[in-house]
Design brief:
rod-shaped
């Protein structure tokens, strides 16, 4: 029977050692963001305390002594161990999701600021005046083309020249000395002249008639339009900014994403305010470029139990984190109780000893 008791003790010690080893590894990773160089010592201390408490609970159970003190101490140690276990497991499951939500939120803030800035740039009085003049030029060019390419009366006649006069009035003069083809000129010559004249008009407007404020505002708005197009879908934008490499968001390149957004936002804010009147100045919200909070215990608990983006992951992480610490205690209570296998072996050993004693006495 002594052999049986030793076997149960070996099984229990092995199971407790495995569970404590797993818990130490989880605690190391779970506390590393907080303790860094001290993590090894702290995780080792938790492991020693857990294993010692497990053996103390086992001893109290075997000797039928009260378990209040060892269980109370176990709860104290398990709180620190379980918190780090949950932190590591939850972070391991959800790090990419948390990073995507954080960077996605940054992109939304970024887009909102750019949309507001684009609208403000378009409302500058000088820009609105030049925009109106540009629309007039474009409209007259469209009318001019219809007149020249009229299948019934092709060529540039009196009405066509009237459109040209309107364009020259907006530009402040004729942009070129191009000869206007006669109404009897071939259609191909008419098309070549029309295209050349259109390019000359647009170029003259952009380089001479338009104000510097309009040109700089237009450049900024076109840049903003390009950014808004690339960031229309946050998840697609993240993938595009990662270069489609499939690498995780926590890679070094991915960690640069929010910082790049902040730099671009600040640049556009500065250049826009240089053009905007004082009463129309814009102020972009600061984009949080720090993802280092991922892996910290408060962040994991807040996300898992307050935000709750994935309840299933929270439950699984909690169960696994608690199980490795609680399993040896439950095993000791079951295995070494009066009704347990080790308890039964001890009782049988006691009965055998008493029987032998009576025989000797007889």
């Amino acid at each position: 029977m002594a052999t049986g008791k030793n076997l149960y003790l070996l099984l229990y010690a092995t199971a407790a050692l495995i569970c404590v080893s797993i818990s130490v590894i989880l605690s190391y990773h779970g506390y590393y963001a907080h303790l860094e160089g001290l993590t090894v010592l702290f995780a080792g201390l938790l492991g020693v305390l857990l294993f010692g408490t497990d053996m103390m609970i086992r001893q109290h159970r075997v000797e039928r002594r009260p378990l209040t003190v060892p269980l109370g101490f176990f709860v104290l140690v398990a709180v620190f161990s379980g918190a780090s276990n949950f932190n590591y497991l939850y972070t391991n499951f959800m790090a990419e999701d948390i990073a995507e939500r954080e960077v996605g939120s940054a992109i939304e803030t970024y887009r909102d600021d750019l949309l507001g800035t684009r609208e403000a740039l378009g409302e500058i009085p000088a820009v609105q005046r030049d925009e109106q003049r540009r629309r007039e030029v474009v409209r007259e060019l469209g009318n001019l083309e219809e007149q020249v390419m009229d299948p019934l009366r092709p060529g540039c006649g009196e009405r066509c020249r009237g459109h040209m006069d309107n364009i020259h009035e907006v530009l402040g003069g004729a942009p070129t000395d191009l000869a206007v083809p006669s109404v009897s000129a071939p259609e191909e010559d008419q098309q070549v002249w029309l295209e050349t004249y259109r390019n000359a008009v647009i170029n003259d407007f952009m380089t001479g008639a338009a104000t510097t404020t309009y040109l700089r505002s237009r450049e900024l708005r076109e840049r903003i339009d390009g950014i808004l197009e690339r960031t229309g879908n946050p998840l697609e934008a993240l993938e595009a900014m990662r270069g489609g490499s499939g690498m995780g968001l926590l890679s070094q390149a991915a960690a640069e994403l929010p910082r790049e957004l902040q730099r671009t936002s600040a640049e556009i804010e500065r250049r826009s305010n240089a053009l905007l009147p004082e009463d129309m100045q814009v102020e972009h919200e600061k984009i949080d470029a720090d993802l280092s909070f991922i892996g910290e215990i408060p962040a994991s608990f807040s996300d898992g139990f307050v935000e709750r983006p994935n309840v299933g992951v929270t439950v699984v992480s909690l169960l696994l984190g608690v199980f490795v610490d609680l399993a040896p205690v439950l095993f000791a209570l079951v295995l070494f109780g009066p009704e347990g296998a080790a308890g039964a072996a001890t009782a049988a050993s006691g009965r055998g000893s008493r029987t032998t004693s009576r025989r000797v006495t007889t």
